[in-house]
Write a structure and sequence with these properties.
It holds the Pfam family FAD_binding_4. Helices cover 34% and strands 19% of the residues. With 481 residues, it is of the alpha+beta class. It binds flavin-adenine dinucleotide.
């Protein structure tokens, strides 16, 4: 697409030259996704200061028929923010916390506030904003909502979707929908905000949100547990959920290979348990009550599990520093996988009861396809969500391994589909899973998605080529960079 001088002149006049980037070196960081898997192209990057400027940019682009690709922190893992032409609309300068209301238990923030800053603003008001991801220092709340982000606190508090009460959205024609309500109950017509949550910039541009806050837990207990296998992990999960209910705030699994590479690549990390086990769980209880410390409740629940023969061994953090050290074994997993060479990722979910079957079937199928391949299946077990990642065989060429991405996707996604699961649990569809969505989605659902897209963005200008494409296919996927 050639640059439109009139469009760029209009944007520059309104936003200022410093906030309409056209020099290749200024635009470059906005063209590539976080792992460098794809590189796109764009005529410019616009950085509005507020919702009115964002609406101006979208309206001018609509007139000029120029596509608009929203970007928050650009930490997305499915190449959803990588532009395939058109204009990148960075929300980073919409970074104000508009209001915090402890009585309503709400916070109103602009789309460009980082997740860490939303958490910090809630904390200063003596409250909790529970969404928590390893990328929270750089991802932005508009991006979190646009991807319906998950993370480590979903078990107790839900996904981003469950945490939103109201939205302000710039529509494809540049009009602004003010849906910034702070209501816990509102059945007045269709619930429009949920159309935009998880729509990955394809239906509208989120400029602000009213979010739910929660009482801050007064204590937490963290345990690292050795188990025979995933079936034992499932039994332990049910045992802890029965005893703790809402106070069970995390249940993450780590496979033996995952623990091995975290210990290998994390300076100062020590094995948490004396012996090796078939699988491991990182469990957390939290409590808002002064008379019921979480660590004591976790200790009692784990003692019961040991007595029942569900657990082989367990250790509890004896201080907040030890709790953090145990959590680091889980949180560092994505990072250390990079040190083991190429990794083919799957972010999938199945009903909880089918997790052991999924893990066994998918592992066997992948190992049979490529001897020496190392399965690193970890993550949010309590949500039924596994990051089923495949590390390359030792010594294999990285690029040759990554060239097998689609082949392994098909194997793993077929297993997920057969078990009634989802091929996109928390990272979304973007570009990477666009064709997989078409393959695995019920035709009626796909038709409804396409109709929604056509109704809200009739000219196909919002993040074209991502998530759902018109029947017959969209533009070809970008080549890997
Ligand atoms: C180390 C690491 C750990 C991660 N852990 C998790 C995890 O545990 N759980 C999880 O869910 N994700 C995780 N992610 C993925 C990523 O951080 C999330 O998807 C996050 O929500 C993206 O936010 P962002 O601001 O970076 O969005 P971006 O990457 O900028 O954009 C993502 C998508 O949303 C669209 N978009 C962005 N802002 C807006 C807006 N204001 N309005 C409309 N559309 C918009 C973009 O067009 C794009 O399609 C992780 C990523 C990394 C790098």
């Amino acid at each position: 697409m050639s640059a439109s001088p009139d469009l760029l002149a209009a944007l520059t006049e309104r936003l200022g030259a410093a906030h309409v980037l056209t020099a290749p070196e200024d635009v470059a960081p906005y063209l590539v996704e976080t792992r460098g898997l794809h590189r796109g192209h764009a005529l410019a990057v616009a950085r509005p200061a507020d919702a009115a400027e964002a609406a101006f940019v979208v309206a001018r682009c609509a007139e000029a028929r120029v596509p608009v690709v929203a970007q928050g922190g650009n930490t997305g893992l499915v190449s959803g923010g990588v532009p395939q032409g058109g204009l990148v609309l960075s929300l980073a300068r919409l970074d104000r916390v508009r209001a915090v209301d402890p009585l309503d238990a709400t916070i109103t923030v602009e789309a460009g506030v980082t997740l860490a800053d939303v958490q910090a603003a809630a904390d200063r008001a003596g409250m909790l904003f529970p969404l928590s991801l390893a990328s929270e220092g750089s991802c932005r709340i508009g991006g979190n909502l646009a991807t319906n982000a998950g993370g480590t606190a979903v078990l107790a508090y839900g996904n981003a979707r469950d945490l939103v009460l109201g939205l302000e959205v710039v529509l494809a024609d540049g009009r602004v929908w003010n849906g910034l309500k702070a209501l816990r109950k509102d059945n007045a017509g269709y619930d429009l905000k949920h159309l935009f949550v998880g729509s990955e910039g394809t239906l509208g541009i989120i400029t602000a949100a009213v979010l739910k806050l929660f009482p801050k837990p007064l204590s937490r207990g963290v345990g690292f547990v050795g188990l025979a296998d995933p079936a034992a992990a499932l039994a332990l999960f049910a045992h802890l959920r029965d005893r703790a209910g809402h106070d069970l705030t995390a249940f993450e699994v780590i496979p033996p290979f995952g623990l091995e590479i975290v210990l290998r690549h994390t300076p100062g990390a020590t094995p948490p348990l004396a012996q090796a086990h078939g699988t491991y769980a990182l469990v957390e209880f939290s409590s808002t009550r002064t008379d019921a410390p979480a660590a004591a409740a976790l200790e009692a629940a784990l003692a019961g599990a040991i007595e029942a023969g569900l657990v082989e061994d367990a250790t509890l953090g004896a201080s907040e520093a030890q709790n953090q050290a145990l959590w680091a074994l889980r949180e560092n997993l994505s990072e250390v996988q990079r040190r083991e060479g190429g990794s083919i990722k799957h972010d999938v979910s199945v009903p909880l009861s089918r997790l052991p079957k999924f893990l066994a079937t998918a592992t066997q199928a992948c190992e049979a396809e490529m001897p020496g391949l190392r399965v690193c299946a970890f993550g949010h077990f309590g949500d039924g969500n596994i990051h089923f990642n495949l590390s390359q065989p030792v010594g294999m060429d990285r690029a040759a391994f990554l060239a097998q991405w689609s082949r392994f996707n098909r194997i793993v996604h077929d297993v997920v589909h057969a078990l009634g699961g989802s091929i996109a649990a928390e990272h979304g569809i973007g570009l990477i899973k666009r064709d997989e969505l078409t393959r695995y989605t019920d035709p009626v659902a796909l038709d409804l998605m396409r109709r929604l897209k056509a109704a809200l963005d009739p000219d196909g200008l919002l993040n074209p080529g991502k998530v759902v494409v018109p029947e017959g296919g969209g533009p070809p996927a970008l080549p890997s960079s």
